[in-house]
Amino acid sequence: xxxxxxxxxxxxAVLTAAYxxxxxxxxxxxxxFPLTGDPDRLMSRLALGVVVGLGVVAASHVFSLSVAAYGxxxxxxxxxxxxxxxxxxxxxxxxVRAQVFMWVAALKITSGSAGTAVAGxxxxxxxxxxxxxxxxxxxxxxxxxxxxxRAAGxxxxAR
Length: 159
What we know:
Blueprint: H1 2-5, H2 12-32, H3 39-59, H4 63-91, H5 97-122, H6 129-156
Helix pairs in contact: 2-4, 3-4, 3-6
């Protein structure tokens, strides 16, 4: 994003720090004000919030706006992560809960590594392409989850 923003490459560290500080702030918010409500709904809404944050990052051509967008995306990602933990706690069978936590952690590490490799290869085309593809992937996952929930609800008669 340094070329897009017209800043020195060393200044990119500010963007990374903004994301990290946002994540830390989001974690503090969750400690003081724990998330409430249905974990499925929270995950979907917060995932879409991350999409909005990534969209603002990709669209920004102003350094200060980018710093704020990275920070906001960090906050939203921390809240999303807390929602995923709540969902695992809520829906994992008690006898295998630890295994569910470990498998999800392993999948996240693997996906993150694969995503980093793909993102690195795509930045040569346009540095924003990985952000936009990530946002599209998240949106597709939320849409699939929403459609699945609605289909399951219509089969059981729930609305």
